Every structure is written in C-alpha cells, then in structure tokens.
Amino acid sequence: MKRVLEIDITDYNRLPFFARKLLRLGGYGRLQVYNVDIPVSQAYMYDKDLFPLAKVHVEESKNGLSYTMLDSVEETSYEVPNLTTMWLDVELKRTGSAPRFSDPLKSLTVEFDGERVVLDGGDELQKLQELVWTVHEKDPDVIFTRGGDSFLLPYLAYRAYVNNALNSFVLSRDKIPLKVKRGRGRTFFSYGRVYYRAPLRRLYGRIHIDVENTFIYKACGFEGLVEVSRTCRVPLHRASRASIGSIMSSLQLYTALKSETLIPWKRHVPESFKSAWDLL
C-alpha cells in the first residue's frame, strides 16, 4: 500500500509538462507519477464511459454535456452509422525521380459516391481552392488517402503556403488549416522486422485514414477497424495507425482506471536502481 498525492489540473494537455517538472524537482528515483500519458481523447471516453461510434443521447447544461448511452460495447450486432467517404489523390509535376515538396501540383482527384472528379483546371492556387470547395460541398465523414500522413497532406499544406493560401486551406470540418510542419515519424522493431510509421495527420471533425499507414484497415477492412475502435475505446483515426497490441493496451488502461488502479508514467522506462535485497 502506498500513499499518493492527487493533483487536478485544468489543462490536461499540459499534464506531461507538469509531470516532467515534478520529476526534475524530485528525481525519477524518488518520485513516481501516474496517469500521465493517457491520450486525452481516450481519457475522456474512459471517464464518461463512452466509445467511438456509440449511439448516445447528449444534453447540454450549465455544467457541460451529459450522456445517456443507447448502445452497449458488448453488443455484437450493432449498427454502424452510415458514414460518407471520399478518396483523395494527387499528381505532381515531378522534377526528379522522387516526389518533393518543391514539385508543382499537376492535378487532384477525388472519388465520392462512385463519382470520380479530376481537378486540373487553372493554376495551382485555383486547384487548391477547388479542392477545399469540393471537400466542403461533399462533406465526407471519412477521407482515405494513399500516403496522406507521410507526404500527401504535408505536400498540399506546403503548396498552399507557397501560394499564400495556407490560412484558407481547410479540409477539416472545424476551421483549422492544415499544418506545414512535416514532423518526425517513428521507427520500431516488431517480430523480427523494422518498421517506419509516419506521424499522424488529423482532419478535425473528419476521420483521415492513410491506407499505407494502417495495420488494422489492411488486415480487417473498415468494419474491423470499427470493431476494435469500439471494443477498446480508441478513436478511429488513432486505431487505424496503431498496432493491435497498443490498441489492446487501451482496454487495459480503461479496466485499470475503472478499478482505481494507478498507471505508471513511461511504463517502458526501466525501473530505477534497486539493491539485491530490494529485488528479493
């Protein structure tokens, strides 16, 4: 049994920063912090007992939103919402053997409801503006890309920046423009092979699935992605890019929080030094 100090902060996104500051003051060997690195979206669903694509009744009051669940995570014959989808592809005017951000945009292709539209008229700025208009006119729930995380979306954001149109280049439902920042991916070792995973590119208010950066979608299709997302309470955009092990760990986190079990921060970091007597 350990005595712990509970600290509530209003900005959950700053929790890791606050935890690092605590550890600098007390040292990792002296202090241990818990419940820090749980993704905000998942922590919210754990707290409210929600899960992705659940059918709920929502009421707004002075104290915030209240939810009445009309669905069950244990249901096996649930109804998947009729989500609208769009495929987005891009063609460049290549100046070398490999595509680069400096290559001008040649055309954009969108597929929606079996209809294929090629946006290739006008200059580069007009093509980008036409894409924004098309996405907002069709208003898809899910946008599929091939290489959207690693190249396509960062490239489009850069071309919008070059054309002084970045602030108006909005493909999300929320009024949040795409970011030019390329970001670093993650290299990891699994089952004897080395893999690279590009950083996640989000479209706020929509679900972006990069079919070249997903294990679950490739193995199980969209229905399988919905199943693991519901069962393990992981948002669709995150579940599509995660391994089945990390998705299952979300279910463990949920179970731990519901049983009031503290979850150590940085669970993969080796423990601090212990004497032989402590180990015994």
What is the H/E order? Answer: HHEEEEEHEHEEEHHHH
Give me the count of strands: 9
Structural class: alpha/beta
Question: How many distinct helices?
Answer: 8
Largest sheet, if any?
A: 5 strands, mixed
Explain what the structure shows:
With 280 residues, this protein is α/β, with parallel strands linked by helices. Among the domains are: 1-38 and 263-280, no CATH class; 85-213, Nucleotidyltransferase, domain 5 (2-Layer Sandwich), CATH 3.30.420.10. It has 8 helices and 9 strands. Strands 5-4-3-6-9 form a 5-stranded mixed beta sheet, with helices on one face. α5 (216-232) packs parallel to α7. The two termini are 18 Å apart.
Structure described in brief:
The protein contains 8 helices and 9 strands. With 280 residues, it is of the alpha/beta class.
Question: What would the keywords be for this entry?
Answer:
280 residues; single chain; two-stranded antiparallel sheet
Write the layout of secondary structure elements.
Elements (H helix, E strand, L loop, with lengths): L14 H12 L13 H9 L7 E6 L2 E6 L15 E8 L12 E8 L2 E5 L4 H15 L3 E4 L2 H15 L23 E5 L2 E5 L9 E4 L5 H17 L3 H4 L4 H15 L17 H4 L1
Parallel strand pairs: 3-6, 6-9
Antiparallel strand pairs: 1-2, 3-4, 4-5, 7-8
Helix pairs in contact: 5-7
